[in-house]
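ASSEMBLY PREDICTION REQUEST
Request ID: AP-0331
Submitted by: J.K., bench scientist
Number of chains: two
Total residues: 568
Priority: normal
Notes: Please return the full assembly, not individual chains.
Input sequences:
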Amino acid sequence: MNANSAQHTEGSIAELQYQIAMYEDASAYKSLFFILFPSLQNFAFSIVKSRVLAEEIASDLMLEVWERRKKLMQIEHLKLYLLVSAKNAAVHQLKQENKQARFSIEDLQVEFVSEYSNPDQTAELHELENSIAAAVKALPPSCQLIYKLAKEERLRYKEIAQLLDLSVKTIDNQLAIALKKIATAIQSGRSEKNIR
Amino acid sequence: MNNDRIWILQARKLSGEASATELKELDHLLLLSPEAQPIITEVSIHWKELPAVDADFMEATWLAHASRMQQKGHPIQTDEPELNTDNYPLEGSVISRKFPLKKIGFVLFLAAAIISVVLLLLPTQQKPIAASALAQTEVITPKGSRTKIQLPDGSDVWLNAGTQLKYNKDFENGNREVYLSGEAFFDVVRNPAKPFVIHTSSMDVKVLGTQFNVKAYEEDLTTETSLIKGSVAVYLNVAPEKEYLLKPNQKLILNNNALANQQLMADKQPLSKMDLSPMVSIQALTYAEASETDVESSWTKNILSFEDELFPDVARKMERWYNVEIQFRNKKWEQQYLSGSFEKENLTQALKALQYSTGFKYKISGKTILIY
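STATUS: Completed
Returned structure:
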């Protein structure tokens, strides 16, 4: 997996978007669903903290994509557009439940083991990966989210900044912090091994 | 600090944000600090790892979404056999309790879809051998208390109030079978050579992974198995050749009433050939808002938790938790939905808290609470 695959997906989304808009191609829509749904659901989940609600939000958004298929090419960055919509829907959901008058970006629950990923892979993590995971979990929630959006969702800094209402400089700093923490975790994992 | 600059640049490089100038600067900095290179490499490797997508689960999720689209008037047809909604029951008929209107049966369709894509990999579950009455260990938790025990193989089991757990002497020799009546949370020591099986009166749970909750109170309307980590396979006693595989954050709910009704009507037709979907559903676990614990196993952390549940169901949980009896004297409170969690509250505090958000009245008479 390298940067190429990110571009590959980006290109895929644009191609599928075209197929859906021009030809009402249902199997293109299904492929688009496979690419976008987990991202939307995971992101919504970090805000609403309920799998059921997150699924509904993601499903509603994908439904809207199909409903507006004829005019789909009007949206330039589809993934970002949908993530922004997911955020709005999720925050709206929170307000409806009266949980919070104002939504704070620190009040998130970021999950790194997606329910859409293969359990066999994630079941047996060895020590080093465990300590990296722990280090990431120890970061402030907003930092975790930025890290996840950059690493897994492959969003550009500008896109993350727009999605979360932050500056690009903040993204720079937060990712540097995250990488440093991971490096420290790797290093202490190493030194422990040497001591044994 | 120079150190941070390396990380800023490295992050940019990994994200594809770095300009040519920045890449040069990074190389230059690494030349100055060669000891940083191995760590940088490790971090890069970690960054580039992406978990593989579980194709079956995505397929099931897609089917659920497609059903929902159809239900909302936007049917979508790809080149697959069309989802026949006659075989997959709509909301309301799957389990006994009513869903609030807001939650259209997304997870219910997901349940139906998952059942349809599960592959029967394991051989037929054999009927459990009757437990020998002589060499059995029995653990019972009375109402109002919870306990934690450790099984001979090192597995941990938390028993909720009003629960009975039994296992034979040959558990130590590797026959890891327990008999459960009540509710328990299992953290099972992984041993693929010695499968761990839980028998309840209506279903067997075969453990393939590690952490899960089984709720099998005989007097309840449903029997549930919730999976937190790992994987389990569930077999219904009435149809043991059918296997339901659960993935993390799913639970399987068996409607005991529907099961009893089916058994009454099924003397001519073997139950295993009948459509079991009205009795069984697989759902996502409920996560209480603003809490990191799923509702299903929160009791192991001494939290009584409920999320959008009918008052009578909550009352039953409270009965066991506080060792009391709760009776409804007004039908309207039986339709009330509640969400909440109690950690250190005593009974009166809990009742007052619920009262505050709903407005019911209550009267305590000995060990019985009347809601009206």
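REVIEWER COMMENTS: The longest strand of chain B covers residues 177-187.
SIGN-OFF: pending second reviewer
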